[in-house]
């Protein structure tokens, strides 16, 4: 009866098909596949939306992080503080550049960087801090920025999961996630909150000189064609993706609201259930729910996941193995880090379907099944 998926891009596309098809056709007719006007325009429109001076599009969210780190001119062994409870890309680029990942624990209620742990992890070798706005929740940026400022350490926000979200400072100032640190990065992977129809990413900054440098690094280290000033890479957003993104950007707030409405439905349905902790929403964060992630208590999480799969209710574990325990990071001493909250979350998180097209009937079906499965397991 229901054909549920974690993310349903088909139904979303159906609603904007006329616009999207015309925009793609327009790029085809122009044959400006790389560096066409849509790329420029999208960069400007996104900068305006975010309230940031510069948006530098690139090929994907992993490249965005890598290029942002490259722009800091770090040397091998310099320490970069981030969380282990994130998608591997955040940490992989640190390792790729032969920097040292330093993992700090997260808060159990927000899944984002723990401030005391950050403070304790700072050493004279700390050369960057990467807070991750995980699942659409803003990391607690005010204290992160204060600590960074005190030690003169640049902050790169990994905003791949939270575009459209915002953070409110104690004085009431509100800023979009990704625009508070020295740089912010994002991904336009199709399932992200602002996703294209292929790969894409971008970097954000308010610093003019840095913007120039990010652009150069993404373009083989050149400003003038064939004159290469520094080692860079080749990382471009293509015109077809930019054309799609210009249309989807117009819907981003509406998409975020739709996700928040799904989260509200889930929150209400699960309120008071002793086996579920619903996502916390601190006052400072306008949560845009890239994921709706529950913590399962008193019953076996894997048994619940299996029971839901049996009932054809899609569910995912983001992420089954935290970064510090990945074989990839063995030689970087990943396993040396003691992160009890991260370890605890690894065993109890489960994410439910969330996207812009879920109907009330589907939500009712999902929540009823989740509650039934829990009742059976709790017997
Ligand atoms: C998706 C994601 C990335 C990487 O983006 P890609 O476009 O897939 O390279 C980086 N960090 C986080 C937290 C992500 O969720």
Give the C-level CATH assignment of the largest domain. Answer: Alpha Beta
CATH-derived architecture of the largest domain: 3-Layer(aba) Sandwich
The CATH topology of the largest domain, please? Aspartate Aminotransferase, domain 2
Uncertain segments are none
Describe the structure.
The protein is of the alpha+beta class. It folds into two domains: 9-104 and 113-249, Aspartate Aminotransferase, domain 2 (3-Layer(aba) Sandwich), CATH 3.40.640; 252-377, Aspartate Aminotransferase, domain 1 (Alpha-Beta Complex), CATH 3.90.1150.10. 40% of the residues lie in helices and 15% in strands. The chain contains twelve helices and 15 strands. It has helices at 9-30, 37-50, 61-70, 89-96, 115-121, 141-151, 208-218, 239-250, 252-270, 301-310, 340-348, 360-378, and strands spanning 54-58, 79-83, 100-104, 126-130, 156-158, 166-168, 174-176, 183-187, 201-205, 222-224, 227-228, 276-277, 285-286, 292-296, 349-352. The strands form five sheets. The chain has a four-stranded mixed sheet with strand order 1-9-8-5. A three-stranded parallel sheet has the order 3-2-4, sandwiched between helices. Helix 2 (37-50) packs parallel to helix 8 (239-250) and helix 10 packs across helix 12. The chain starts with 8 loop residues before the first helix and ends with a helix. The model has no long low-confidence stretch (mean pLDDT 97). Bound molecules: pyridoxal-5'-phosphate. Pyridoxal-5'-phosphate is lined by residues 60-62, 86-87, 89-90, 132, 158, 160-161, 187, 189, 199, 201.
């Amino acid at each position: 009866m229901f054909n549920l998926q974690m993310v349903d891009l088909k139904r979303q596309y159906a609603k904007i098909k006329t616009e999207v098809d015309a925009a793609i056709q327009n790029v085809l007719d122009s044959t400006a596949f790389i560096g066409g006007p849509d790329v420029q325009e999208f960069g400007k429109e996104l900068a305006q939306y975010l309230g940031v001076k510069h948006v530098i599009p690139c090929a994907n969210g992993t490249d965005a992080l890598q290029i942002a780190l490259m722009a800091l001119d770090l040397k091998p062994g310099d320490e970069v503080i981030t969380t282990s409870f994130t998608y591997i890309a955040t940490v992989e680029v640190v390792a790729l550049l032969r920097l040292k990942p330093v993992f700090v624990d997260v808060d159990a209620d927000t899944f984002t960087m723990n401030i005391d742990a950050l403070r304790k992890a700072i050493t004279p070798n700390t050369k960057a801090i990467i807070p991750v706005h995980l699942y659409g929740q803003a990391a607690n940026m005010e204290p992160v920025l204060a600590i960074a400022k005190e030690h003169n350490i640049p902050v790169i926000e990994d905003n791949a999961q939270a575009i459209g979200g915002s953070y409110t400072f104690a004085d009431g100032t509100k800023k979009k996630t990704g625009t508070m640190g020295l740089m912010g990065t994002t991904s336009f992977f199709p399932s992200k909150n602002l996703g294209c129809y292929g790969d894409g990413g971008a970097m954000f900054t308010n610093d003019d000189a840095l913007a120039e440098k990010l652009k150069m690094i993404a373009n083989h280290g050149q400003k003038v064609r064939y004159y290469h000033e520094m080692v860079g890479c080749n990382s471009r957003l293509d015109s077809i993706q930019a054309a799609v993104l210009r249309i989807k950007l117009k819907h981003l707030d509406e998409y975020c609201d739709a996700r928040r409405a799904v989260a509200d439905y889930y929150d209400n349905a699960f309120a008071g259930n002793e086996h579920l902790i619903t996502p916390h929403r601190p006052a400072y964060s306008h949560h845009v729910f890239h994921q709706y992630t529950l913590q399962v208590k008193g019953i076996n999480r894997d048994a619940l996941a299996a029971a839901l799969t049996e009932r054809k209710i899609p569910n995912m574990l983001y992420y089954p193995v935290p970064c510090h325990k990945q074989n990839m990071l063995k030689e970087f001493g990943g396993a040396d880090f003691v992160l009890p909250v991260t370890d605890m979350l690894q065993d109890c998180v489960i994410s439910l379907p969330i996207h812009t097209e879920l109907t009330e009937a589907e939500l009712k079906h999902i929540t009823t099944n989740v509650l039934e499965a829990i009742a059976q397991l709790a017997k």
